[in-house]
Structures are given as structure tokens and as C-alpha cells.
């Protein structure tokens, strides 16, 4: 069993970070970060499903697939390096070259990640200067990790990090992570950059398998605005410095790691959904009693992406008809006359409909429940034992304001 601890990507043995204000797009704030491992790492990754893929995504896909190991990640905020043509791939190569020289690691061991405005060209002089400034400042302190998490934000309002520890084979293993993501967030990966570090010893194949399986229930189950980004990247680096016997098969140790990885990824996913651009509430949707996991996933995603439902959550309005409507156009088959619906939050819980029909509930109490910063809707379709959970947020006036002038 894992224990939640303070910190993020620097808590696992051997990992260090640095951050700097390179002036790539933002002024008077940090906008670059670097993650470095003292030892070479097994690397795994999952990436955007958008056909339009940013240059860093293509670069990282190649590194994860073909390189023997990875040892560093260079991240910039403000400019996405997406839709930048051949120059964009050249920027990735230049970034790797600069990091290679500064850190004394192979270029093939350098991963890159960018987030921000699509279509703008990266100012490589500033980016290279940022790398040179960060390399001597690398530190394994919790504070350094937190600063790195802050530096990769775009429209995020707060840093996002988490870490856990657990024991396997008498060794303490740590998994830590940080991410950014606030807008252009939609299931099947989003404008999110997520970086997970761990000192576990595990084969590259099982590391990738664990990550690929876990994103289905974590990052792929969040939505802010229904837009799937060009830059989505989730990277996991494992340097083996915990000293455990290397995990090469799906045994009890592997399962313990998967549980810890799931907690880290789910926590980061929920932090992104709850920090959606302009939002005031994290909106969680649980579909239970489904006949299959696929059915539950489809229904929960449909509810979480419904603009009308999201607007109702913003207005603290128990407009359950919008939820039932979103379920109805999802494509999943169910009997609407058997659906039970509940709302719950820190303010209490309440059943709103039974067998598809409204109960005589208190609108005042419902509004109180929906006024909390974290709100859950539970839909029971009474068809089986499968379930799924999705996360999103309310739709507010500020979302439009933020995205109406994002490039300025």
C-alpha cells in the first residue's frame, strides 16, 4: 500500500529539477523547466491522438520508442512549437543538442515538451540561454520540484504535483509527478504535459504497458472544453535507484507499482480538471450499474462534456434533464426509465430522479450541494456491475474571456 508524501518529481531518488525565466513569451515569470536523472532511465510515454501533432510530440515518440534510455526533459511554456513545419523539428534537435552539452548526456537521451500558442516559432536564442542557466541550478529539493511545476503553467491558476511511496522487496520506492493543463482539455489526452518520475527498477516494456493501461482511466477521462490538443504528452522516467529487484513480469510488485502510478496519474488528472480555464468547480461523474466498462465510459464522458450540463453546474442548478439528455445522445444503449440520479458534495447527498422520473426534492438543498468546489453526479443505469468515472468542470463566463484573447 502506498503513502502520500509531500513533493513531486524531485522526491524519487536521483531526480533533480531547475527552472528559469527565459522570456520565451511571458514576462516577469518563470517559463522553462528541466528534469534530470543522475542515472539513465527507462522511459515510457503516451501522446495526443490529434492528427495534428506538435514537433515535441513527434520527437518524444521517437526517443521513447528507439532510444536505449532517457535522462533529461526540457520543457517550455508560452509557445507550443506546433504547426511550425520543418523548423519545429529542428528546434527539438537544437534543444537536445544544447541540453546534451550542458548536462553531458547523449542527445538521444533528451526529451522535450512545449505548451502554449500554436503556430508561433520558438526563440531558440532564449531557449538555449534558459538551458545554460538551468543546468548549474539543478537540485533535488522539494522546493526545486515545486518551482518547476509552477514554471510550466500557461493559463493554469496553480501548480500541480503529487508523490507517493511504497515498499517492495524491502526497498522504499517513490513515484512523483507534476503536470500542467487548464484549457484545450478533452478525453484521449489533452493540452496537458505530465511528467512522472520513479526510482523503481522495472523493464521498459512493463513500464510502457503500465502507463498505457492507466491513462485510459485517468487522463483520458477528463474534459474541460472538448478540444483535443496538439501537444499532449505524458512521460514516465524510471531510473532504478530504489534498488529493488527489477520487475520483469506481472507479479505482486508490478501490481503495487500500478496502484501507485494510478494514484499519481488520477490525482494529476483531477487537478487539471478542477483547474479548468475560468472554472469554479471540479465536476465528477460516476456511472454505475452499467453492463460494460465501455458503456460506462461512453455515458460518463458524454455527461462531462455537455456544455449545458457544465453551465448548470456553474449556476448551481439541479437541471437533471440535461444529464439524462447527454446520456441519451452518447450512443450507448440504456433504458432511461430505469435511471437513478444522485448529486453529492461536502454539503450532503441527494437523489434527484428515480427510474427516470424526478423526485420531490428540495431545490434549496440541491443548490447548496451544487455550490461546493467539488461536485459529484452519480448515474445508476441498473444494467450490470460495471462503472466508470470522468472528471470535468463547470462552464463559466471567464472561460470565454480567457480564450477570446489567448494569443495576446
UniProtKB/TrEMBL annotation:
Show the Pfam families listed in the entry: ArgJ
Q: Which Gene3D superfamilies match?
A: arginine biosynthesis bifunctional protein suprefamily (3.30.2330.10), ArgJ beta chain, C-terminal domain (3.10.20.340), L-amino peptidase D-ALA esterase/amidase (3.60.70.12)
Segment forming the signal sequence: none
This protein's source sits in the domain of life called Bacteria
Provide the top EC class: transferase
Asked whether the keyword Glycosyltransferase is assigned, the reply is no
Q: Active site located where? A: 191
Pathway annotation: Amino-acid biosynthesis; L-arginine biosynthesis; L-ornithine and N-acetyl-L-glutamate from L-glutamate and N(2)-acetyl-L-ornithine (cyclic): step 1/1; Amino-acid biosynthesis; L-arginine biosynthesis; N(2)-acetyl-L-ornithine from L-glutamate: step 1/4
Transmembrane residue ranges = none
Q: Which family does it belong to?
A: Belongs to the ArgJ family.
HAMAP family, per the entry: ArgJ (MF_01106)
Q: How does it assemble?
A: Heterotetramer of two alpha and two beta chains.
Query: Can you say what this protein is called?
Result: Arginine biosynthesis bifunctional protein ArgJ
Give the originating organism: Ventrimonas faecis
User: What is the gene name?
Assistant: argJ
